[in-house]
Amino acid sequence: DRNASLLQLELADYDSDILYSIASALKFGGKISFTKRHTAKLQINNTKIIQDLIRMGIPEKDKTNAATFPENLPRDFYPDFVRGLFDGDGSIYNDGGIAIQFLGTQSILEGIRNILPCDTSDNHLFDRSKSGANIFALKFKTKKSIDICNWMYENASMFLKRKHNK
Q: 7 FRET partner, CA 20 to 30 A, in 22, 44, 78, 85?
């Protein structure tokens, strides 16, 4: 498979700032490309990076439905992991006060709920599946949202500026 060593990150072109941050952190000398669909892409062809990600629990195929919470994630990286999921599959909005939401597999969201710095016992997962997909939502409002955001961004050096500013 010619894509076995290709890591591709693609997102809306207005969020391309984080791709430049990632490229800089990895000392990546390639280009970030922009598509006609108004997306930005960072493509890295590196077998070692791919194998490291697989070893850490990132599924080789069907990440959307098969991703599980990384069991051996060091505690120091909890805020970074949660912030990364929030940047990729989260949202922040006004729902009579600040509210945040994460989307992901049941395993990912249950793992996140267990590591957050606030009581999450009353925050249930909502099944967002369509045609059997393993997609769930986890929502927080008001004080919990603020506490979680403060925790995610406290010592952060890399994040999606649009969500951070909001």
A: 78
